[in-house]
Amino acid sequence: MVAVRLTAILGQDRKLTIELPPEIPPGPVELVVRSQIEQATVELTYEQVREQLRQAGILAEPDADVSNIVPLSDEEILELGRPLFPTKPSHEQIIEDRGEW
Predict the structure, then answer these.
(1) Taken in order 71, 76, 78, 82, is the CA torsion positive or negative?
(2) Using one digit for the tens of pLDDT, what is the confidence trace for 62-99?
(3) Are 6 and 18 within 8 A, CB to CB?
(4) Sequence-ordered list of residues with C-beta below 8 angstroms from that of 91, at least 6 positions apart, any chain
(5) Fewest CB within 10 angstroms: 21, 29, 99, 101, which?
(6) Cβ count within 10 A of residue 34
(7) Which of 44, 33, 26 lies closest to 10 in space, CA to CA?
(8) Phi, psi for 47 (deg, rounded to 5)
(9) 4-26 b/e with 16+ CB inside 10 Å = b?
């Protein structure tokens, strides 16, 4: 494999034309493009971040109307704690993993 490092300037039209040296044989090549310009970091204010989250629909609003929230029943709470599929008791699983002592 022959490797060559080149530098070029990318125009506003987003097109890049390069001429490779003769030591690069014709055929498949791998092209990696890395910008030499450091990407500027954008500093957002607290309110800008909140607005972006609100627009995405993922902001937890403390002032949201919670009057329509119905508490879970005791049976529903217990159901949330059940495994999704039947399992063996934990002591049987430990014996199965480690073997009998």
Answers:
(1) negative
(2) 777 778 888 999 999 998 988 777 778 888 888 888 87
(3) yes
(4) none
(5) 101
(6) 4
(7) 33
(8) -70, -35
(9) eeeeeeeeeeeeeeeeeeeeeee
List CB contacts of 67: < 8 A, sequence separation 6 or more: none
User: What is the number of alpha carbons within 13 Å of residue 16 lying toward its C-beta?
Assistant: 12
- Give CA–CA dist 6/19, Å, rounded: 10
Give Cβ neighbours of residue 25 (< 8 Å, ≥ 6 apart). Answer: 2
Mean pLDDT of 7-34: 85
Q: How buried is residue 87: exposed, middle or buried, by Cβ count under 10 Å (0-12/13-18/19+)? A: exposed
Side-chain-side CA neighbours of 69 within 13 Å: the count stands at 5
How far does CA 72 lie from the centroid of its chain?
32
Tokens 């014709």 locate to 26
Q: Looking at this protein, which amino acid is placed at residue 92?
A: E
